[in-house]
Amino acid sequence: MQASEASIRTAVQAGIEVCFANPGTTELAWVQALDSVPGIRAVLGLFEGVCTGAADGYGRMTDRPALTLLHLGPGFANGIANLHNARRARSPIVNIIGDHASWHLAADAPLTSDIASLAHPVSSWVRSNQSAKDLASDLAAAWAEAAGMPGRIATLISPTDGQLGEGEPARIPERRSTAVVDHDAVSAASRALRGGRHPLLLLGGLALRDAGLRAAARIAGSTGARIVGETFPARLERGGDLPSIERLPYFPDQAIEAIAKHDVIVLAGAVSPVSFFGYEGIPSSLVPPGAEVVTLSSPEADASAALESLADELGARASEAAAASRPDAPIGPLNPGSLGQALAAAQPEGAIVVDEGATSGMPYFLAAAGAPRHSYLGLTGGAIGQGLPCATGAAIGCPDRQVIALQADGSGAYTLQALWTQAREGLNVVTLLCSNRAYRILQVELGRAGVAEPGPIARSLTDLSNPTLDWVELAEGFGVPACRVDTADDLNRQLEIGFAESGPRLIELDLA
Amino acid sequence: MQASEASIRTAVQAGIEVCFANPGTTELAWVQALDSVPGIRAVLGLFEGVCTGAADGYGRMTDRPALTLLHLGPGFANGIANLHNARRARSPIVNIIGDHASWHLAADAPLTSDIASLAHPVSSWVRSNQSAKDLASDLAAAWAEAAGMPGRIATLISPTDGQLGEGEPARIPERRSTAVVDHDAVSAASRALRGGRHPLLLLGGLALRDAGLRAAARIAGSTGARIVGETFPARLERGGDLPSIERLPYFPDQAIEAIAKHDVIVLAGAVSPVSFFGYEGIPSSLVPPGAEVVTLSSPEADASAALESLADELGARASEAAAASRPDAPIGPLNPGSLGQALAAAQPEGAIVVDEGATSGMPYFLAAAGAPRHSYLGLTGGAIGQGLPCATGAAIGCPDRQVIALQADGSGAYTLQALWTQAREGLNVVTLLCSNRAYRILQVELGRAGVAEPGPIARSLTDLSNPTLDWVELAEGFGVPACRVDTADDLNRQLEIGFAESGPRLIELDLA
């Protein structure tokens, strides 16, 4: 059979169920194979950043890789920013990038480029298929690399002659194995926590799932350690009876102050904390001088299992269930505070909250500590334009859950085409589009840099008010029903409508 | 003074006048420098693909590099697709990419990535600034590389500590020199043209400007050579009294047939023609078997001067002025044919036509042969999403000329954020948005691949009708007045309005 068909058979056999695609002429054999072999849902994005961001959201919520299908170097390049976020989230993704027929590469046709050079910065595994008979096993190898826990990004470059030649389905290899719990590390962490005056347990990655959080709470109960989560979690389970944790603040001076008193820091699935940007006079590392840092589990290992081993070694008992309570719906003016309160008050059980709200979204996290069980997805890599695509993919992965995109306007404008895919696929995504009509974070950063009076160019380059983006028109232009609210009461009402109805909806919040 | 300020002073001294920007925290010193030093217009794009595509359009029309100012690896990555087009267009561009402070790179903060690996595929020159005192000279070197004729893309990676330290303006170096006319090549081309039974002169790059076209017409008059332009010109001057030339067809079988009879092909600013994609059974090279191919001038050299030398060597006289005439405005139904006719009938003197119309735009080129003088800009690299940004930059570069974006819907959806920059800057761009609600070219390619009945996934992945994109709402959402037409008469009327008014306007053409 055709190698592309053999490869899709292999993908189905491996358990791949979704392909986020924006194919071109060099991917048509892959498209035909998706028709030949049942089992993979093909989801079209109007822009590749939608496809890769959706694969990230899908991977975070299902722990399984989706395929992306992208068109040569430029098409792939459009997806790099969200692959950067996915790499930092340790999401499993298998990228398939079509390329010219191998015999055509030397012609340097207009779309020829160095795809591997583009792929390496966002992929742990890059391979260019060399022949049709290898294509299915190449795809199987990509899957095995991507599908370990935590996930990785594997990128297969696929020339057309390799797609069109003869191939056979490949055996499904073992997926990349997860590092087992290091008992020396558990003992070292146990000693450090018991020996510290002010121990801190910093959680990241897989430690932020149920089992890790419950084990961490046992450890805290037993040792008095403070539990803090990394600033931008790929996926943090929250609410209901789960132990509630704080997050490390974003700005480095605030983060340094927040953990200054700790003499012992135990890392579980988190890297040693560093400043998001390098500011003159502030060190890269946020670790208090002299503090002992002990790695219980790297982000690449099974941090939840390591935490459970540590809790057992400490003889820690189960902690009491958190007393879940959430705020009442706010009344009065609309601002980031009342927005956070309104969303926390209204979000349904099992919601998935994708937070690219930037400055507008900040109060929400605290407000939602006592909300019903939900998953919270952060901007892991700092590459903006992640929120709407990630919400799209999360909704494909979890059709029975309400997805909520808490979305800033500046970053939302990067990849707004995701709204069309939400409409096309009828996804349950409610987008709270926070229109403050500025790159507010940059205005804050200018202030932090001591610029009291920005000049006209600095003001212009951080301003989105001229002209105003009309998000109701933009959403409806892509087929998503939308409305605008400018009071908390309006927002409460629209959230109720949005969560009651099925399909996507956008609520523009006037925060200017 | 601060190195960023010294560098902007140097840029102004070199003649740089525009910066297409989407900065972030790591570029704030550059932003402040733009305020400190008068002379550079800062133009904000809502997405980096808008900035790089605009720099391409600006470069094609002014032959001078603009700056782009982009945020780390992911921000730059968003601009790669249009830099790919710019590289193929040989447009001059200087990219400035902010990076973390050099002392912060080892911390592997969330936004850290291998920027150079991303930059190399679309840059002929990549440098990472090593110290503040070198920053201005690094920028000067980037300018010198970019600003030669034809242009190139130079990319300067700029860590924040190098921006903030002390620097001095740099001496402006000589720009990269253009290869002089090769008189042996002129003689060889002269011999070949005179010796051939059916000689063909294939023009590309700088040969498609006035002087090259007029010299080519002299050569044709003297030798009987047929004049053909490359398929996707960066900038082809047309209309008025300029000699009119045909373009090589896009599909390789058509291109092979079109030039099959030629026994001699002389290349002037064009590369030897190759198929856009590699199709089984069709060779990469479109050159007829046995034909002699002679390079008069590579695309990197001054092809116009080479053509003039050749015309002189041949003793060729000036050709008669072309009899300029254009079609009447069409009546009746709207389709690609009547669209082409309507635009050719209405376009004002001096228009700049950016053609990313794909299948909908094809008839326009023939119809406009006798239109008043205009510049025609093609999709040089095949990376879609070029049209609206390129039109934006062309309008910044040529404020007194009417810019027309002949734009397909699928590719238009890639970078529609360019409309906002058009509104913000009040640019004279009329966009003809061709809504056929399909990736029609892919449907054509499926047919060419022998797929008579595409399956449901192939149909879905090439279909844009579910839901329909409402381009009037999308344009108005970004602040651009818009309307929809579904007859040729409506289109004629709206073109008249659009060309009479100043500022941007979008006309959605219902071609489904």
Question: How is this structure best described in words?
Answer:
Two copies of one chain form a homodimer. Chain A has 512 residues and is α/β, with parallel strands linked by helices. Chain A has three domains: 3-164, Rossmann fold, CATH 3.40.50.970; 183-313, 3-Layer(aba) Sandwich (Rossmann fold), CATH 3.40.50; 336-510, Rossmann fold. The first copy, chain A, has 21 helices and 18 strands. In chain A, the strands form three sheets. A seven-stranded mixed beta sheet of chain A has the order 9-14-13-15-16-18-17, with helices on both faces. A six-stranded parallel beta sheet of chain A has the order 2-1-3-4-6-5, sandwiched between helices. In chain A, strands 10-8-7-11-12 form a five-stranded parallel beta sheet, with helices on one face. In chain A, strand 5 (125-128), helix 7 (132-146) and strand 6 form a beta-alpha-beta unit. In chain A, helix 1 packs across helix 2. Chain A is globular and about 65 Å long. The first copy, chain A, starts with a helix and ends with a strand. The mean pLDDT of chain A is 97. Chains A and B meet through helix 2, helix 4, helix 5, helix 6 and helix 8 of A and helix 2, helix 4, helix 5, helix 6 and helix 8 of B.
Quick tags:
homodimer, 512 residues, alpha/beta, 39% helix, Rossmann fold, 3 domains, 21 helices, six-stranded parallel β-sheet
